[in-house]
Specification:
Number of strands: 0
Strand content: under 5%
Radius of gyration: 16 Å
Number of domains: 1
Order of helices and strands: HHHHHH
Distance between the termini: 33 Å
Structural class: mainly alpha
Shape: globular
Oligomer: single chain
Number of helices: 6
């Protein structure tokens, strides 16, 4: 599949690099928003969320082909739902462990040799997290959570780095298993 001038395609082995960069840029924008606070934070947080979601969609369209892509997608979606709905990693330690495990699970499920599939878990996490937050706010009459702690600024970046590390480890193992 090709998207206009952007040329995102599974056939292009490097097409995934732009959306991955977008996820990391979004994590930095969200970190700045958390540190800034106030009305600037609302604008930056919204921008970061939009960049994250757009990058996640483009990543989904451009991840390298994998032997078990359906299993990989199922694992990525389930990991995103479990992380957002049940585990809800809010600290650096929780995010590191949870997203590293999710990255490993997705890469093994897909049989991905590149490790890029691991980033689908955090890419899917944010939209699910937002839907849950909106649902909770609506069910509680518009009540929103209090300001996040300052350490929350590094959590989005931690999620991406942990998934990347877990995916790289799993991809290395997949390559060794396939080599013999």
């Amino acid at each position: 599949m090709t998207i206009g001038a952007l040329r995102f395609s599974r056939e292009d082995p490097n097409a995934w690099r732009v959306p991955v960069l977008g996820l990391f840029v979004a994590a930095v924008i969200v970190a700045i928003a958390i540190l800034a606070g106030g009305s600037a934070a609302r604008a930056l947080n919204g921008l970061g969320g939009l960049v994250w979601i757009a990058s996640g969609i483009l990543l989904g369209l451009s991840v390298p082909a994998a032997p078990r892509h359906t299993a990989g997608w199922i694992a990525a979606v389930l990991c995103g739902i479990v992380l957002a709905g049940f585990i809800r990693p809010g600290t650096v330690g929780e995010a590191t462990v949870a997203f590293a495990i999710a990255g490993v699970v997705v890469v093994f499920a897909a049989g991905d040799r590149s490790g890029v599939w691991a980033l689908l878990a955090p890419a899917i996490y944010l939209p699910v997290h937002l839907l849950i937050g909106i649902g909770r706010a609506l069910s509680q009459g518009g009540a929103m959570r209090a300001d996040p702690p300052p350490t929350a600024a590094v959590v989005p970046l931690t999620m991406l780095l942990a998934a990347t590390a877990g995916g790289a480890i799993a991809a290395s193992m997949v390559r060794r298993i396939r080599a013999g």
